[in-house]
Specification:
The protein is of the alpha/beta class. It has helices at about 20-35, 45-50, 60-65, 100-110, 120-135, 160-180, 195-205, 215-230, 265-275, 300-320, 340, 355-360; strands at about 5-10, 35-40, 55-60, 85-90, 95-100, 115-120, 140, 180-185, 205-210, 235-240, 250-255, 265, 285-290, 325-330, 330-335. Strands 3-2-1-6-7-14-15 form a seven-stranded mixed sheet, with helices on both faces. The radius of gyration is 22 Å and the shape is elongated. The termini are far apart. It binds 6-O-phosphono-beta-D-fructofuranose. 6-O-phosphono-beta-D-fructofuranose (F6P) binds near residues 15, 145, 241 and 263.
């Protein structure tokens, strides 16, 4: 008689990120080889479990075939579904947060799931850690275009974001050069400036502004003046959405109701105004790349990293190694405890070789 199969539930949480589908496919493929596991997906992170009726789909080969090439996530995602602080919008518009973790864990077990794989960023891994401590068999897979998780050398999605930003940068240089303009390109990166620094080096920017290094506007004016001193200059700036001037504040917008974080975006316009006020005479134009950096097909590197993470996560489940997050460490795929995974952020170190090399290439950070 056939053994009853074990069941693993996969979900994607937080912002979408190129490579999520490659992880889902890899988990499903690796599980299929085992013959003793069935793979299911919860729609919109944990909401698929909490909703009535539940929204859970079986990840058959028909559903996962060829999806590694596609951006986004076939399982959908949300940043308004934290089961530890589940946001309910009240009739007066305020938010009431309710801890639904016990209900969630009970439901996952009642539905017959033996394990969960949570693919997400820092916030999702913190949720995984708490659910693990409350008794859920869970494994994490790190994702974010921001590359701000310290327990892995790199997250998938980051290389795709850098490629998209670099392609856009190249397109802006031609206008800067033709019109003798200062072009400001704003990239994502709430707390960490990885996308900005890599794009600035790849594209050949003159100025790169990141959250880790508050900038001095007078230093930027000096750099711009030096470029225009013989007339007909032009200059390209990359700024991360979380960058701010010395003694200045973040440019934040009202967040969506129930969302975990404030919305950033628009810092390029603030910088443009600051430069004009400080006396920059050249024409300035601003471009905010926004979500284009998370869209479209993942580059090959991200497809590979995501696939390796997916296989490893399923292998952790097969061996009953719960409470772990898969990670890239020293060029090999390993894992760390969820405790270690959520301990620190991965910031750009202003004393790192990366920043020193950028400065060696003539890039000013405004410090
Ligand atoms: O964390 C990834 C990220 O893309 C950030 O760089 C950005 O600030 C945020 O997500 C945007 O989130 P949302 O899609 O919710 O606006």
């Amino acid at each position: 008689m056939d053994q009853p199969k074990k069941k693993v539930l996969v979900l994607t949480g937080g912002g979408d990120c190129p490579g999520l589908n490659a992880v889902i496919r890899a988990i499903a493929k690796r599980a299929r080889k085992e013959k003793t596991w069935e793979v299911y997906g919860s729609i919109e992170a944990f909401n698929g479990v909490l909703n009535e009726p539940t929204e859970i789909v079986k990840l058959t080969s028909r559903r996962t075939a060829g999806i590694h090439v596609k951006g986004g996530t076939i399982l959908k995602t949300t940043n308004k579904g934290n089961p530890l602080k589940f946001p309910y919008i009240q009739p007066d518009g305020t938010i009431k947060e309710v801890n639904r973790s016990e209900e969630l864990i009970k439901k996952i077990k009642d539905l017959g799931f033996d394990a969960v794989i949570n693919i997400g960023g820092d916030g999702s891994q913190r949720i995984s850690k708490e659910l693990y401590e409350k008794g859920l068999n869970i494994v994490g897979v790190p994702k974010t275009i921001d590359n701000d998780l310290s327990a892995t050398d790199m997250t998938f999605g980051f290389q795709t974001a850098v490629q998209i930003a670099t392609d856009s940068f190249d397109k802006l240089v031609t206008t800067a050069e033709s019109h003798h303009r200062v072009m400001i390109m704003e990239v994502m990166g709430r707390d960490a400036g990885w996308i900005a620094v890599h794009t600035a080096i790849a594209g050949g920017a003159e100025i790169c502004l990141i959250p880790e290094i508050p900038y001095d506007i007078s230093k930027l004016v000096k750099r711009i003046d030096a470029r225009y001193k013989h007339g007909n200059g032009f200059l390209n700036i990359v700024i991360a959405e979380g960058a701010k001037p010395k003694d200045g504040t973040l440019v934040a917008r009202q967040g969506d109701k129930g969302s975990e974080h404030v919305r950033l975006g628009g810092v390029a316009f603030q910088l443009s105004e600051q430069l004009k006020l400080a006396g920059v005479k050249a024409d300035i134009r601003e471009t905010v790349l926004g979500h284009t950096q998370r869209g479209g097909t993942p580059v090959a590197f991200d497809r590979v990293l995501a696939s390796l993470f997916g296989v490893k996560a399923m292998e952790l489940v097969i061996h009953g190694e719960y409470g772990k997050m898969v990670a890239l460490k020293n060029n090999s795929i390993s894992y760390v405890s969820l405790e270690e995974a959520t301990r620190n952020y991965n910031f750009v170190d202003k004393d790192s070789f990366l920043v020193k090399a950028a400065k060696g290439l003539g890039i000013s950070f405004g410090d």
